[in-house]
Amino acid sequence: MAKKSKIAKFQRQQALIVKYAPLRAELKAKGDYDALRQLPRDANPNRLKNRDQLDGRPRAYMRQFGMSRINFRQYAHLGQIPGVRKASW
After folding, report:
1. Which of 1, 36, 55, 73 is most buried by a 10 A CB count?
2. Same domain assignment for residues 1 and 42
3. What's the confidence (pLDDT) of residue 1?
């Protein structure tokens, strides 16, 4: 489990990205890089480090499911992820 401060920072960054997305797109279309530089750094989606939505783990993140490999395995074995089941042949 990640520190609560890291999870809070991740949520804050996501909110900033959503807030500034239309303005960033407009400024990029104009080519106004000086104005882009004035925006908060965390408003840039490239700076976002994906984290597990359940416990905030930053490593081994599975983008398709929004969780780390550990939680994916746990919930897949319980059958709580739609469309995922254990392979057997």
Report:
1. 36
2. yes
3. 78
